[in-house]
Amino acid sequence: MKTATNSRVNPEVSRIPALLDEERKSFLDRLDIRPHFQPIIDLLTCSVVCYEVLSRGTPPYESPKILFEQAKALGLTWDVERACRVAALRRISTLPPEFVNDHFCINVSPEIFGDPRFIEGFTQKKLDEYGIDRGRIVIEITEERAAQDLPRFERIISHYVEQGFKISLDDFGSGYSGLVTLVASAPHYMKLDMALVRDIHRYAYKQKLVKSMVSFASSVESRLVAEGVETVEELETLVKLGVRYAQGFLLGRPQPFPCRPSAETNETIREQAQKYNYPKVEIEENLNGLVVQSYTIQRGTMRCEDLNSVFKRSPNLTHVVILEDKRPWGLITKQHFYGQMGGQFGYQLFRKKAVEFVCKPNALTVDASVSLTLLAKLAMDRFQDDLYDPVIVVDGCGDFIGTVTMKQVIVKSSELEIRRAMNANPLTNLPGNEIIRIWINEAMKQDAYSIVYADLDRFKEFNDSYGFLVGDQLLTLTAKILAEETAACGCDARLGHIGGDDFVIVCHGIVAEETLTRICRSFDARKLDLFHQEHRATGQMEIVDRRGERCRIPLVTLSLAVVDSRTLPERPHPAFFSEAAASLKKKVKKMTLDTGESQYSFDRRNYTTKP
After folding, report:
1. Residue 569: C-alpha distances to residues 78, 175, 448, 521, 542 (Å)
2. 413 CB contacts (<8 Å, ≥6 apart)?
3. DSSP 531
């Protein structure tokens, strides 16, 4: 019966499996994976936090999309992904010594991640064959489709995290499947779906969504990475929303060799980052007085058993910094050291090895000029294992100065918060006189600067007529309008509240007339919501003057008096600015009274003492 049945099979159909096997063999024989590296940049420090390893094939499979589509069609997804991983690890193992501490992100699809062959083959023992430590590898879960067996997926994630691998989730925000995978993986990195990043500066809805994702990522101690950043406008918007990590063609294209950002790229990043990452209030925020001398050793001069003796002789010693000449190379905390040296075989395994084998090579390092606000942000954005490590401080040349402990940072931050609260205006929460004086002193060190004095005309009469609660609403609205335009000017423009209805904007550079015009027009349009319909219609409000008589006066307007460096002497006394502005404001107030509209004016008087 079987013979008779087989004789009736169509010979063309019977050839299909053989043809498919031949096509698979041909595809695999021609497979030549070429790893490419694209940097993921820390936008606050301009440093590379990780390189994503991308795979490129040879013609006709240069495009990874075409490569993996063909692999899937032939049922060779496992084989191709394995070839990509092997090629990536081989390439990483041959990189020059300057990349020995860098991290690399390797893509794995959910179906492969759950394959027993992956679990058995992707281990520290396997990585040892390439001389790569698991702490340098980030496993990136790719594709939009969620894992099918979530409990098993969670167990595998835990398995790799416990071994020391980091986990990254691709296409975060792409839909339901991504959220399901997110819940199961609790990743160290979350990559924003490229569709959310593209033209984000043009879409308010995207911006609100990303802002909420920034808050979420921070709350679960994950790093949010924006993928596909291609324009300065996208970068600026992402930084403004609080996104700290990014990759894309603007920051670095995939290359056969890992590359650091160019000087031009660093400058682009720095320009955008500085706009939105300066501290709003600065009172003695530098690190002077916090940096302490630390125990240091030169790289290659001490073994672990010797460091063990050092720690035992010095019970109060909490950390050691490894230097390469004058530059910091790594950090060893006592807790991390004994964590590595513990266990039944830990000490015997490491005691004869150089201390570099148990150090933290990517310890947080900052310039001595960094503000305490930014330092605290950088420190608290570290992974849990590094959260309370000391911070290494270097000078402008990158040479080691000392370290700052997190206890010092927390104590000093608490002191500053108290001083800020005492100095801030209770209604608008804007910095007051003490901070404004600091800003003005900083501005005077610049080649060009502007100081804009803003106050409300006829505010007392408005307060008397409408009441203090509505008066507070008008002050809050004024602060909001000024703050919006101050933020639009960038990091070098700062807003303070002297008191009452007086505000000050301190700006490095000459403030643009377009900015002043926008402030005036915005105030005149938005203030109307606080006036009665009758007053809005006539452009006047009815009050009782000092003699008890009823009269009509124009609605409240905003006067802006601008004093700038073009007409000032070098390093004028700080009191000079308020004196110059006082007489100028009288002129502006007359303009607002005549026109019934908010106005601005630059001080054109020449105070310079230059010949």
Report:
1. 73, 60, 12, 32, 45
2. 372, 373, 376
3. S
DSSP single-letter state for residue 511: P
Q: How far apart are CA 480 and CA 168, in angstroms?
A: 38
Structural domains in the chain plus CATH codes: 20-276 (3.20.20.450), 295-413 (3.10.580.10), 429-602 (3.30.70.270)
pLDDT at residue 180, rounded to an integer:
60
The three-state secondary structure class of 375 is helix
CA 520 to chain centre: 33
- Per-residue confidence (pLDDT) for residue 145, from 0 to 100: 56
Write the pLDDT tens digit of every residue in 209-228. 888 888 888 777 788 999 99
- Tell me the HSE value of 144 on the side-chain side, using a 13 A CA sphere: 8
Q: Which one-letter DSSP state was computed for residue 359?
A: S
Q: Residue 607 carries which side chain, given as an amino acid letter? A: Y
What's the pLDDT at 316? 85
Q: What confidence score (pLDDT) does residue 16 get?
A: 44
DSSP assignment string, 57-108 = -STT--SHHHHHHHHHHTT-HHHHHHHHHHHHHHHHHTS-GGGTT--EEEEE
Q: How far apart (Å, rounded) are the C-alpha atoms in residues 183 and 153?
A: 11
Q: What count of other Cβ atoms lies within 10 Å of the Cβ of residue 131?
A: 11
By the 10 Å C-beta count (0-12 exposed, 13-18 middle, 19+ buried), 117 is classed as exposed
Identify the segments of the chain with pLDDT beneath 50: 1-16, 176, 278-284, 610-611
Nearest to residue 244, comparing CAs of 99, 104, 47? 47
Q: Return the percent helix, strand and coil in the chain, to nearest 5.
A: 45, 20, 30
pLDDT value of residue 610: 43
Sign of CA dihedral 104, 110, 112, 117: positive
Pair 501, 459: CB distance under 8 Å = yes
Residue 610 CB contacts under 8 Å (≥ 6 apart), including other chains: 569, 570
Residue 83, both tokens: 């070839």
Residue 106, beta-bridge partner list: 53, 139
**What's residue 148's pLDDT?**
63
Burial 387-422 (b: 16+ CB within 10 A, else e): ebbbbbbbeeeeebbbbbbbebbeebbeebeeebee
Torsions phi, psi of 551, nearest 5? -150, 170
